[in-house]
Write a structure and sequence with these properties.
Elements (H helix, E strand, L loop, with lengths): L3 H21 L11 H11 L1 E3 L2 E3 L2 H57 L1 E4 L2 E4 H77 L1
Antiparallel strand pairs: 1-2, 3-4
Helix pairs in contact: 2-3
């Protein structure tokens, strides 16, 4: 135990000297990779080992810590900017959704007004209105066809009655002529008989 104490004291003194020497000595070597991982690897390469422990140059450690802080600040700024952009885009999306919803409502209202027809103060759906109109047209066409058919029948009947009347009128006219002829013949015969009678009496 007594022998171990001087050894420990010697090691402690060497460690303090090494740290002090590392702080006093200016680091002149350059790192070609400025990334955090590159700086860390460069620091490990330049550090010395003593009994399994790494002796880190405080200047390099401070430089790495500064780079870490700078990177964190930069990432935080970028995160704040990204959050602001996300909030702006979220607000824009909400606004666009509201506009789309309003336009959809307007479109639905326009479609409803296009598909709706008002007749005599009564609103009808376009399909229902078309169905009613076509039903009325078909009914009127059927009624017109019935009227035309009935008119044809009545026209035929009228023509037939006219022909019958004409035949009766012709027969009556012929009978009238015959009766007149017969009457004249009878009148002549009567006149002849009177003449004969007068001649017979005059003698």
């Amino acid at each position: 135990m007594q022998k171990l104490k001087p050894t420990l004291l010697f090691l402690g003194a060497m460690l303090i000297l090494n740290v002090a020497f590392g702080q006093a000595k200016q680091d002149t070597s350059k790192n070609t990779d400025p990334s955090l991982n590159g700086q860390y690897e460069f620091m490990l390469r330049k550090s010395k080992s003593l009994y399994g422990a790494r002796l880190i140059n405080p200047t390099r450690l401070s430089s790495l810590w500064k780079s870490v802080n700078d990177t964190l600040r930069k990432e935080r700024r970028e995160l704040q900017v990204a959050r602001k952009e996300i909030k702006t885009q979220t607000d824009n999306i909400a606004s666009l959704k509201g506009e789309v919803s309003g336009k959809e409502n307007s479109l639905a209202s326009a479609n409803a007004s296009v598909n709706e027809i008002s007749f005599l103060g009564i609103s009808f759906n376009k399909g229902t209105y078309n169905t009613i109109v076509w039903a009325l047209i078909i009914l009127l066409a059927i009624g017109l066809a019935v009227v035309i058919i009935q008119s044809g029948k009545f026209r035929k009947e009228a023509t037939y009655r006219t022909q019958l009347y004409q035949e009766v009128a012709d027969e009556f006219q012929a009978h009238k002529v015959k009766a007149k002829d017969k009457e004249m013949k009878l009148a002549r015969e009567l006149q002849d008989e009177r003449n004969k009678w007068d001649d017979a009496r005059g003698r």
